[in-house]
Amino acid sequence: VADEIGDNSDVYLSEPENKISINTDEDVVSTNTSDDSNKTLVDLSVTLKEWDIPYEKLIVEDKIGSGRFGTVYQGRWHGKVAIKMQNMDPDSDNEDQLKAFKQEVAMMIKVRHDNLILFLGACMKPPHLAIVTSYCSGQTLFNSIRKEKFPINKAIIIGQQVAQGMGYLHARGIVHKDLKTKNIFIENGKVVITDFWLFNVTKQCHGNKNGNCLTISPGWLCYLSPEIIRLLQAGSTTNDLPFSFKSDVYAFGTVWYEMMCGNWPFRKLHPQAIIWQDILVTCWAFKSDERPDFGWLYKAMERLPKKPLSRSPSHPIHLSRSVDS
Ligand code: ADP
Ligand code: MG
Fold first, then answer.
1. What sequence ranges are listed for the domain Protein kinase (predicted)?
2. Is 306 exposed, middle or buried (0-12, 13-18, 19+ CB in 10 A)?
3. Least buried of 66, 74, 118, 222, by fewest C-beta within 10 Å?
4. Which candidate in 25, 91, 96, 178 is catalytic?
């Protein structure tokens, strides 16, 4: 993904082959996708205006909840819908945020799969930036796992549907970046994955005023692959962090663990212990040649923080530099 979106520059979504160029002045998006097998380029021109929902046309009802990215409301627009209102970051340029938002909308338009949330349209006029999707009346996999025991057959059925939805996203060149059981709904036995557009529009790790405090929401770390965790620091943005198809696969491993064991892995551990879980995970690699040697282990342990910090509810970790340094 391009770091900066200049007026005349192209915006790349994950891979150059899956190119989305945006001219925000005219609200026109052109999408080039490439099929791996025949490398035929298909040109599509889509007018963002066709997907614009004027804010006044939406009926915003009860607040359902809020996450890192904004607030979700139940609402009405030709039927029951979910409305995800985007938080505008006061520290970032509004134009840039709008462009990033429109880029996500352009991506949403091309995502059509039975196991992915149905995008209906978006409010694209600041300050009301919102994504409108179908409303999921079922419960999240997160709640479902914690309410009842998950027999292996059920885990396989759910897991395969998640794999199908994620496989489709990856084939379209899209990295989810926030795959977790709270973003997987179960509607009458069918998996619906959501929130695969959110990460690119928001600063991931909000620093405090001094910029040296990283606040980590409970349960987030256990979905993050070691290569990402090592680079986490206050103020990190998605562009700084190496999200990839393989980091999505890591997150799926945690989803699978939850279905097997009924909760997050490393739940009772201090966040710093989770940060250094890569020692554990690499030693336990299924393939023997992927396990490290003791020289690597010695150095890895040398980098461990020596004094554990006291635990607090929101798990703030004080970092003046990357955990890797
Ligand atoms: P998180 O994913 O961390 O739970 P979100 O901001 O994505 O945070 O969601 C906030 C709340 O809105 C959650 O309770 C979530 O289940 C609910 N929610 C999100 N999208 C939908 C949807 N399409 N239909 C129904 N509820 C939704
Ligand atoms: Mg969510």
1. 58-325
2. exposed
3. 66
4. 178
